[in-house]
Design the sequence.
């Protein structure tokens, strides 16, 4: 993988993460992330739309006049969201019913139209597709981690209702961490989502600060070592 593609991957997964840094798409992120399976389902649906829209918009960028680019982008995104919505309804109906209105609302996710305007419409197809994939996976990772934490704390399980996404064979995948009656109810409610996301953002900031200080120390130490050695 070239340096440019590695940089795109780092941006989407960590440095410019949609949920933790850009703080976009928070409405579905906070509303749906009460379990790992729900978060994973919405994250994968959003990722498919991101990859598809970024690829198509990059492919047609030279044919779309700048004056009408936004309506064209929205039309492409809405078409892809409709396809994903119908596919979920057909093949994952139970999950579709749980996610409800938040699948059609992917159209209004600022992360998708933002990447279309800021990146896909200005870069070649391979780079745009990779950007959409990494941004989607970064968003999905936040949904999965937040959903898993809320599910464990709130009801003492992990992978509950996994069959909605993985089929009948996953009915026995539920891990009972502790009895549900000992769960912290607030974790399953909207305040729990805000608290959980806030802690994740704080953890990312602390991690970034740690590595920045470490890199600064290495930068300061290296010239001294070279000078001493000479």
Sequence:
């Amino acid at each position: 993988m070239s340096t440019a593609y590695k940089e795109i991957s780092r941006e989407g997964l960590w440095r410019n993460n949609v949920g933790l840094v850009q703080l976009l798409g928070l409405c579905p992120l906070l509303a749906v992330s009460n379990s790992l399976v729900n978060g994973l389902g919405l994250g994968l649906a959003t990722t498919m739309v991101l990859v598809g829209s970024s690829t198509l918009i990059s492919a047609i960028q030279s044919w779309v006049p700048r004056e009408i680019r936004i309506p064209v982008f929205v039309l492409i995104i809405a078409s892809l969201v409709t396809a994903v919505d119908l596919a979920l309804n057909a093949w994952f109906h139970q999950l579709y019913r749980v996610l409800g209105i938040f699948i059609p609302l992917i159209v209004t996710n600022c992360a998708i139209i933002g990447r279309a305007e800021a990146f896909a419409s200005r870069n070649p197809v391979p780079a745009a597709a990779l950007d959409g994939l990494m941004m989607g996976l970064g968003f999905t990772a936040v949904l999965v981690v937040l959903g898993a934490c809320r599910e464990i704390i709130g009801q003492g399980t992990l992978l509950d209702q996994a069959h909605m996404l993985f089929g009948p064979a996953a009915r026995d995948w539920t891990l009972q961490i502790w009895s549900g009656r000992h769960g912290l109810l607030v974790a399953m409610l909207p305040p729990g989502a805000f608290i959980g996301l806030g802690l994740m953002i704080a953890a990312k900031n602390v991690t970034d600060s740690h590595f920045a200080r470490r890199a600064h120390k290495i930068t300061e130490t290296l010239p001294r070592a070279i000078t001493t050695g000479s």
